[in-house]
Design brief:
CATH topology: MetI-like fold
CATH superfamily: MetI-like
Number of domains: 1
CATH class: Mainly Alpha
CATH architecture: Orthogonal Bundle
Helix content: over 70%
Structural class: mainly alpha
Oligomer: single chain
Number of helices: 11
Number of strands: 0
Length: 274
């Protein structure tokens, strides 16, 4: 078994192995769906692919009265807008606070306990307070994303900042570099790819907070549509929407990964290939 850690698949084999679980799940679903539909043609728990297409066409193809777009496109754009703004604000706050905590001992001593406490508060516990204080508009849903992942990003960036060798900072100060110059030329270039990795880690939670906010207080969005049709047990709509959300999340994760690799190739140079 010791040699197992040295066994590396070829690129083609890695692609086949990566696709295998999806193929197995798809085959299992197709068989289960066919069995249920054979017993009851009106069963909607495991709809066929054709039924899901018709469901999305029926619901998602309708025209949204607010935007004038088809419902599916309007929901997608609404959710992506909220997610992008929420992630952007969380990343900006997390980066700023994280660098301050990691680089300045006085800031770390003052605010590190506060950030640690905020990071362990369940965001869903704050949801009623957020909705009451900020209303049912876009701000409350975006703020839920920010409060949910910004503290974790800040703590991760703070840890990464503290990992910068002290010798590098001392040499920069010896050469006359100011605090601003040290942050700009030494800290930021090293933290930006780390920031993208932190956002990747928080991406799943961001989607969770987004869908929860849309389900409770929204008139559009992927989460809103899923919770709207669940009262009719419309699995022919829910499943395609879930698959679409999964595809969007995977695409965003891939973009963030490639961005981090492009901005910080030295970070990945010594990592083992998947």
């Amino acid at each position: 078994m010791a040699q197992l850690i040295n066994a590396r698949p070829s690129r083609r084999a890695a692609l086949a192995l990566g696709a295998a679980p999806f193929v197995i799940i798809a085959i299992a679903y197709a068989n289960a769906s066919a069995s249920r539909l054979a017993a009851n043609a009106r069963d909607n728990l495991l709809p066929s692919v054709f039924a899901m297409y018709e469901g999305v066409k029926r619901i998602g193809g309708a025209i949204d009265p607010h935007s004038g777009l088809c419902v599916f496109l309007a929901d997608t754009l609404s959710s992506l807008e909220r997610l992008t703004i929420g992630l952007g604000l969380a990343a900006l706050i997390g980066l700023t606070v994280g660098i301050a905590l990691g680089l300045f001992p006085l800031v770390r001593a003052t605010f590190s306990p506060f950030v640690a406490v905020v990071s362990i508060i369940p965001p869903f516990a704050l949801l009623p307070i957020i909705l009451i204080s900020m209303g049912l508009g876009e701000a409350s849903k975006i703020f839920l994303i920010v409060i949910g992942i910004a503290p974790f990003i800040a703590r991760d960036i703070a840890t990464r900042t503290q990992e910068i060798p002290v010798e590098v900072l001392i040499k920069a100060q010896t050469l006359g570099a100011s605090t601003y110059l040290i942050v700009k030329t030494i800290v930021l270039p090293q933290m930006l790819p780390r920031l993208l990795e932190s956002v990747r880690v928080g991406l799943g939670s961001a989607w969770l907070f987004l869908l929860a906010g849309e389900a409770i207080a929204s008139q559009s969005g992927l989460g809103y549509r899923i919770f709207l049709v669940r009262r009719y047990m419309a699995m022919d709509v829910i499943i395609p929407y879930v698959l679409w959300i999964t595809l969007l999340a995977f695409t965003l994760d891939y973009v963030l990964k490639r961005g981090a690799e492009y901005m910080g190739p030295w970070i990945y140079a010594n990592r083992a290939n998947p």
